[in-house]
Each structure stands twice: as C-alpha cells, then as structure tokens.
Write a structure and sequence with these properties.
Blueprint lengths: L2 H10 L13 E6 L10 H19 L3 E3 L10 H10 L3 H10 L4 H6 L3 H18 L15 H16 L3 E11 L4 E2 L5 E3 L5 E11 L2 E7 L10 E4 L4 E7 L2 E5 L1 H8 L5 E8 H4 L3 E4 L3 E7 L11 E4 L5 H12 L12 E2 L7 H9 L9 H15 L1 E2 L8 H15 L3 E6 L5 E2 L6 E11 L4 H13 L1 E3 L3 H11 L3 E2 L1 E2 L14 E2 L8 H5 L2 H4 L9 H9 L9 H14 L4 E5 L6 H12 L8 E5 L2 E3 L2 E2 L10 H8 L1 H10 L7 E3 L1 H21 L9 H20 L3 H22 L9 H13 L4 H10 L21 H23 L7 E5 L2 H12 L6 H6 L2 H6 L1 H16 L2 H9 L4 H7 L1 H8 L3 E5 L17 E4 L1
Parallel strand pairs: 1-2, 1-24, 8-13, 20-25, 24-25, 26-28, 29-30
Antiparallel strand pairs: 3-4, 3-19, 5-18, 6-7, 6-17, 8-14, 9-10, 9-11, 12-13, 15-16, 19-21, 22-23, 26-27, 29-31
The structure holds zinc ion (ZN).
Zinc ion binds next to loops.
Length: 921
C-alpha cells in the first residue's frame, strides 16, 4: 500500500466518530449491511463508496454526518458453507482458499460457522478502511451480538402485540434437504420464482381419480380430452385414502402439501392412452398421447381445451394431420372481442405457427390467457358471466361438489437451495408469518411512500407494486444463526425479518455496549425509542442520554441499496417502521442503485465472475478505484468494471496531482485570470447541484473534467512564456476541496502540501462567489474558442499551406436578426416575421438567406448561450482583435479581423453572429 494511504487511514481511524452536535444540522445515511461470508468484490465497493462520497460531501457542507456499518450474519448460509468445508467439499474449499485467499490455518477453523463470520467481518472492516470509507466504527456490531438480539426481541414483541405476526398454514418455499423454509437469500437459483395456486380438476377413470392442475377451471366445459406423456411413468397412489393416478413428481409434491400419500404401483403412460375418463362438467373424454406433457409440471396429466389453449389446439391439429382422432372438434365456451369463435385457432393462424415446437407458443398462450381474462365472457349456457367471475365460481363449485383441491407450484420450475438441493412448495402449519397481506398495513406503507424522497423517481412505481403484491412472509426458521422468537423460542427469526429497523439501533449501538445485555429489557427499549415507562434495570440518566442521541439522529435521511432489494428488504423496512415508530420518525428517503458488471457480465461470487475489491485497491490505489466506480455511471445505472479503463483513471489522478503541485508557486496576474475565476464558480455550482441530487458521476464531471478542461484553455491563452497567475493558487485550494469526497487520499495529502492545517475531510465545501462570475468575459472566450475550432477544421480540409487568416465579423443588422430569431417562439415562421421589417425587406434575398442561416445557428447553439448572446452587446470585432496575437501564435500566420459589412470580399457575406466568416489564403 502507498505510504500516503497508510497515513490517511491512521489519521481517519477515529475522525468520523460522530456524536450529536446540537448546533449543527444532522445528516444520517445508511447502506444495507453486508453479509460477510466471502471477500468483497468491486461491486460491493461501489455500494459503499458512492454513499461515502455523499457522506464526505455533507460533512464538508457543515452537517453532522452519521455513516455507520455493521455485519449481517443471521440465517443459514454460513452454516451451509461451514458444513461443506467440514465435509471436504472441493468447490467450496477452492473458493475460500484460492479466490478469497483465506490462510489454511484459518480455513481449518471454518468448520465453526462463527469463525467464518468473525474472520470476514474483520476483513470487510479492513478493506472498507482501505477504501477510505468515513465510517463511525464505534457503532459496529454483528446481528448475533446479545444486545442486538435483545433489540430484535423487543421489535418482535411489539409486532406480535399489534397483530402483525400471525401463525397460520401457508405455502412456502421449502428445502427438504435442509428441512427448512428458504428465503430468496438462501437460493442458488430461482430467487424470483413465485408460488402459484392451481386447481386440481379431478376426472374419474373407473374407481381411480385422475387430477389435472389448471389455472383456468372455468374451461372445464370445453375439455375435449386429456394429455398423457406416453414416454413417462405414472404412479397409482393412495392419496388421503383415495386412489389417484399422477406422476411420481406430483406425488412427492402433494406429500408436502397436507396430503397423505402412499404410492402403490407404477403405471406406464401408454396404459392410459385411449382410455376414457369422465368429469360431471365435461362428460366422457378420451386420453390422448402428447410428448410435450412434463411429468414435473402440475400432476403430469393435462386437460385439453383446444378452443382456448393454443398448445392444446396445435397438439390436436398435429395428431389430426396424421389422420388420428379426426372426430374431435374444439368446444368453445368463451366469447372474446377481437377473436372468432375459436380464439386459439385464430391466434395460431394469425401468428403463422407451424407446430407445437414453435418458440412463439409461450407468448401466444399468454396473449389468449390475458385477453380472455380481461375481456372474455362465458357463453350464456354456462352462466354468461365474465371469465374473471366464472373462474372463481367454477373453482368453488368443484371444491364443494367434485373433489377438487388446490395444488401449489412455482411459476418457473427450477428453484435450487444454496445446499444444492431442489426447493419445493410446502404448506407449513405452525409457521409464524409477518402479515404483509394486511390491507391496512399496506395502506400505511403507501402513505409513507408518498411522503418520501425516492431516487431515481421511476422506482416509485416499483415500490407501490411491491406493496400491492406482497403476501404474508414466513419470518422464522428452525435452524440458522439469529435471534429466537421471544414467545416461541423453538423458532429463529430469519435474515430478511431481523434487518428492518436496525437503522434505529445504529444510533445507540455504541452506548448499549456498556450495558450488560440482560439489563436490556423490552422496557428499556420502550423508554429509549418511545420515552415511555420507567425501566428499573438501567439508571434514568443513562437512558435519557441514549434517548436523546436516538432522537438527534432519527429518522434516517437516506438509505442506499441495490434495486433487487426493492422486492423485499427496502419495502419490508417501510412496513416495520410504520408498525413500530411514530410518524415523525419514519424514513425520509431512499436511493436505489444499479447493478455491477465485470467486463460486461453480471458479477457473481458463486459463478467466480468477480474482481476482489482488495486486489483492485492494491493494483490501482484506493482513489483510482473510487474515482472509477463513481465516474463510470450514476448510482442508479448499472456499471461495468474493466481493468483497462481503470488504468486511465489512475493517469487522470496523477495529472491532477502534478497540476496542483506545480501551481503552488504561481504568482502575478494575467488578462485571462478573470475568465478562469468565473468558470470556477460555475464548476462549483455544477458540482454542488449534482451532489445535492445524488448525481455523483455528473458531479465528478464538473469537479474534475470540467475544471481540467478550463485549465487547459487557460494555459493556451496565457501570454507566451507566462506560467499562470496567482489565481491558480486559489483555484487549487478550491479544486482539492471539490475532489476531496471522491479521491480523499490524494486530496488529504495535497491539502497539507498547500500549507493548510487540519484535514480536508472537514474543510468547508467551496461556495460559488457570484461576484466573480463574469458572463461577458465567458462569452468572449466562448466566441474565441469556437472560432479557433472552426479555423482548425478548415485547415484540416484545405490542401495548401496557409499564409494568412482573415476573419469577418457579422454586421449589426445580422445581430438584430439574431435577436429577433432568438426571441421568436415559432422558428418555422420566423423568416417571414423578419421580412416584415422594413429595413430587412430592403436587403432582399441577402436578408432571407441570412435569416435562414441564423435560424439554423440558433437551433444548434446551446440554449443558454443563445440567451446570453441575445441579451449582450458583445463587440466581436474588439474581442477577436484583442486575441489577434494569440491567433497568430496559434496558427503561425498573420491574422486580420474586419467588419463584414465594410468588406466587398465574397466570403464576408457568410459572416454570422458568433460565427465569423473565415478566409484562409
Ligand atoms: Zn437446502
């Protein structure tokens, strides 16, 4: 590590410990605490570095900033890792030894899950410090620390009392291998899978029952046949004492869903083909062969409704084209606008589908499903109701009269637990649930969302959607690390449920460490958070101090997290805040981050596609890593880490270092100083506005690249031999502060070099000085810069060596035309408007041409320049005349500046305001 970095880390060790400071406005930001089960990669790096930039900015703005960190270790993942290491699992050991480079003696101790947690939380802290994060480390904790468990017990006692935690029978994701319900955190694959409730329509085959799973029970009236896979093997099973025929997969699934299942014999699919089955609502129908039937979907036997299901329609057509089952006709039962009598036939023919293997079939099925569900009506003879209503009615009728039961399965089939085993839907009875389905609770969260700042604004709709579809959440597990449910200690609170209001805990975490955990009773927390009651285990003075610290910081101002947490954590925490804390302590804002890519592919530790943060810090230096991560995308955009791009960032920081080091000695004044000063004020304004709206990339553009570009022009414009005026010294003091939030290590060192005392981390953020903004000077330089650019592009185009340059500036009447055109609201009619002016009309064709050219120019120039130009009385001739020696030096030839109005040269007629005509000879 570079010695400067080491020095800063030592200086910063306790610098960001923040205590309440009544005289200052507070700013409290939090980031989702990490789960330290492996090394941090550069994607994690951005998650913490971007908030750190904002924390540093707010601190320099004079706010009292709290930026805490803790480690989330609840749940089963480390237990699984530990087990796999203990069992000698080569892949896991390889990951930890080779990718994460855990020393062998420590790896040996990983057979105890707490050792993994301890090792990596210390590693995380070390690497976070190396990254320059300005964290108050006194408040750090891990989620199995006893004081934290007391806090979670208090939280759950409240939720239970208020009726937000209920016990019930619910379908949940379940891993039979772990014998545990699993949350999205516990999954290797399928973390977006949803549990779907199907209806089993029960057909009779002699004494046996053949159930078919469907989402559309109302279509029973249109069933023409069943489909069975002739290549599959089915089973005869006693299910709840009755004889059923299903696939073996289905039998296993039903056993997890409140059914008593006893498999008695195997039946080849072929035995079922051409048999006749019956349902009271469909009558007798035959069983037909279909290879598309998947034994792992539903019961492995499918009811066929060719009039309304494109798959069934085309499978039947395929058979009939071979001359089989030609007597079967689709039986329609739903009328839907936009389709003929047989909607499936219509859709298939319209889409030009050839056979059942066509890739367009899935979308077509969805199209018909949606059309019929939203606008379809069941025929009069089947009740004449909307599909929406008929679906529920028929399902209820079938459950009551025709032996139907529900069956649960995932929408997309494969859901895999971290243990490697497959996850199924299980109905749990004694499980505890957070009742997120409660409409009153949902309403409160929606009200809260309306009052919050959400960045970027488009995530608002996603939050509302999440609140709407959230169902009850299984919040306890039988195994794993974590806090026991206080009233039923056979259960442990799972990770997404014990991480919802810990932002409040941070505000007092360091103070609780001084109190023995057994004294942290619910009454103590009631007093701290609500100011209620009179706990006896802790003295009042201590409690009052703790409460006043909580009230100083809370509520938090902003929470930062990745967009994939909207569907769980970020929304859960709003529910819990509403349930626990009063209105004035509700969260104020959230900033939702994009994802990290590595060389264009999604970063993923389990797939090995990661670049470790510590490797990046070592290879490039902390500031380079920070600047790259902040500069490559705005927080809500996805970013892509590419080593070759990171290297160029390092060179940029070196340039900055050299510029500031050289400018220290600058003295005297030059004519262009006023321009540089003015530009600097604009950069301060730009960077400040960007940071105030969390646009960290835009802020860096202004603060780094913007200032650098200005300096480049400034140097070019200096009189020959001049090194720059004392204005540079002032600029450097400002520049170092503007960049301090982004590249604090470099800036801390430069700040000392500039002779400033104290740390730049606490220096005041630069403020734009209005009195130093000089629009006329900026406009004049803009004219000159654009003219230089135009000359350069002409020089590139002409084959000859230039001997002289003549510039013709536009005459007064063209400036007048410019003002009229700039002010006109309708640029398409403006030429006619101008020609109504007597003076212009007299100029005839010349004026029409000029008006057209000027209109084009006005549309091309940045609007703020057009506005300035229209309002200014910029003397172009004087500006360019004043820069004549500069132009002659730049291009190495004599230059002249003339008024186009007084020249008869044919080129002169092309002169436009802000765009002199150029003649090169
Ligand atoms: Zn498992």
């Amino acid at each position: 590590m570079r010695s400067n970095e080491r020095e800063c880390i030592a200086r910063w060790e306790h610098a960001f410990e923040a205590d309440p400071a009544i005289e200052k406005e507070k700013y409290y930001l939090t980031v989702a605490y990490p789960y330290p089960s492996g090394a941090m990669h550069v994607g994690h790096g951005r998650t913490y570095i971007v908030p750190d930039v904002l924390a540093r900015y707010q601190r320099m703005k004079g706010r009292q900033v709290l930026f805490p960190m803790a480690f989330h270790v609840t749940g089963t993942p480390v237990i699984g890792i530990s087990k796999r290491i203990a069992n000698g699992d080569g892949k896991t050991i390889g990951l930890y030894r080779d990718l994460y480079r855990v020393p062998q003696d420590i790896l040996d101790r990983f057979i105890n899950p707490m050792e993994i947690v301890r090792y990596f939380s210390e590693e995380y802290r070390r690497v976070m410090q190396k990254s320059g994060l300005s964290i108050d480390w006194r408040r750090r904790f891990i989620t199995v620390d006893p004081p934290y468990s007391r806090f979670i017990e208090w939280q759950y006692a409240h939720l239970h009392e208020e009726g937000h935690v209920v016990r019930g029978a619910h379908p949940v994701k379940y891993c039979p291998q772990c014998e545990n319900p699993v949350g999205d955190h516990d999954l290797l694959e399928g973390d977006k899978a949803e549990i779907i409730r199907f209806t089993l329509v029960v057909f009779r085959w002699g004494d046996a029952r053949i159930p078919c799973a469907t989402l559309r029970p109302e279509t029973i009236y249109g069933v023409t046949n069943l489909w069975v896979n002739p290549a599959a093997t089915y089973v005869r099973a006693m299910i709840d004492g009755k004889e059923w025929i299903v696939s073996p997969e289905a039998a296993a699934k039903l056993a997890l869903q409140d059914h008593e299942v006893l498999v008695t014999e195997k039946i080849p699919g072929t035995v079922l083909i051409d048999q006749t089955v019956a349902h009271p609502l469909s009558g007798d129908v035959p069983v037909l062969p279909a290879t598309f039937v998947d034994p792992d979907m539903g019961t492995g036997i499918v009811m066929s409704v060719p009039a309304h299901a494109p798959f069934d329609y085309i499978a039947l057509r395929d058979l009939q084209e071979q001359g089989k089952y030609t007597s079967i006709e689709p039986v329609p039962l739903i009328a839907v606008e936009g389709y003929g009598e047989i909607p499936a036939k219509d859709a298939v023919e319209r889409a030009g589908i050839h056979d059942q293997n066509d890739p367009g079939m899935e979308a077509l099925t969805q199209e018909i499903y949606s059309a019929e569900f939203s606008r379809g009506k069941v025929f009069e003879k089947y009740g004449g109701r909307s599909v929406r209503e008929a679906r529920d009615d028929v399902a209820a009728l079938m459950v009551e009269r025709y032996d139907s039961v529900p069956m649960y399965d995932f929408d997309n089939r494969l859901v895999i637990c971290r243990c490697g085993g497959r996850v199924f839907v299980k109905i749990l009875h004694d499980q505890w649930f957070l009742e997120y389905s409660d409409p009153c609770w949902k309403e409160q969260v929606k009200t809260q969302l309306e009052e919050m700042a959400l960045v970027p604004p488009e995530v608002r709709a996603e939050f509302v959607r999440t609140v709407d579809w959230l169902k009850d959440w299984a919040c306890t597990r039988r195994v794993g690390l974590g806090t026991k449910l206080p009233w039923d200690p056979t259960w442990i609170i799972e990770p997404l449920s014990d991480s919802t209001v810990y932002m409040a805990y941070y505000t007092i975490a360091h103070r609780l460490k001084a109190i023995p955990p057994e004294k942290l009773t619910p009454a103590v927390f009631d007093y701290i958070f609500f100011g209620e009651g009179s706990p006896e285990t802790v003295d009042r003075e201590t409690l009052d101090a703790i409460r006043s610290e909580f009230l100083y910081w809370y509520p938090y101002d902003y929470r930062f997290s990745a967009k994939d947490l909207i569907s769980n954590h970020l929304t859960f925490q709003l529910f819990h805040h509403r349930a626990i804390f009063p209105q004035e302590l509700q969260p104020r804002g959230m900033v939702v981050f994009g994802m990290g890519l590595l060389n264009g592919a999604k970063m993923s530790s389990s797939k090995g596609n990661v670049f470790l943060l510590e490797d990046a810090l070592e290879e490039f230096g902390a500031d380079t890593v920070r600047m790259f991560l902040v500069g490559s995308a705005e927080p809500w955009q996805d970013f892509d880490w590419r080593n070759e791009l990171v290297s160029s960032t390092r060179k940029q920081i070196e340039r900055f270092w050299n510029t500031v080091s050289e400018a220290k000695q600058a003295e005297g004044t030059t004519p262009i100083d006023a321009w540089l000063e003015s530009r600097l004020q604009r950069r301060i304004e730009g960077a400040t506005a960007a940071l105030d709206s969390f646009q960290t990339r835009q802020a860096l553009q202004e603060a780094f690249f913007g200032v650098e570009a200005d300096l480049k022009w400034y140097r070019r414009r200096l009189p020959e031999g001049a090194g720059g005026g004392a204005v540079l010294q002032d600029l450097c003091r400002t520049w170092v502060r503007l960049l301090a939030p982004f590249i604090p290590f470099t800036c801390e060192a430069l700040w000392g070099d500039l002779g400033e005392s104290g740390m730049v981390s606490f220096a005041p953020w630069p403020e734009a000085d209005e009195s130093r903004i000089n629009p006329e000077v900026e406009l004049a330089e803009e004219l000159l810069a654009r003219t230089v650019e135009d000359i350069e592009s002409i020089l590139k185009l002409i084959p000859m060596e230039a001997k002289s340059i003549s510039l013709f500036v536009a005459p007064a009447w063209k400036h007048e035309a410019f003002r009229i055109i700039a002010a006109s609201a309708d640029k398409t009619r403006v030429v006619r408007e101008i020609m109504q002016n007597e003076g212009m009309r007299r100029r005839g064709r010349e004026a029409t041409d000029a008006a057209k050219q000027i209109t084009k120019l006005v549309l091309k120039l940045p609007p703020d320049i057009v506005k300035q130009l229209a309002a200014s009385s910029l003397d172009e001739q004087a500006v360019l005349e004043g820069a004549r020696s500069f132009l002659e030096h730049e291009f190495g030839v004599p230059a002249t500046v003339k008024d186009a109005g007084e020249s008869t040269h044919p080129k002169a007629a092309a002169a436009l305001p802000f765009k002199p005509a150029i003649m090169i000879e």
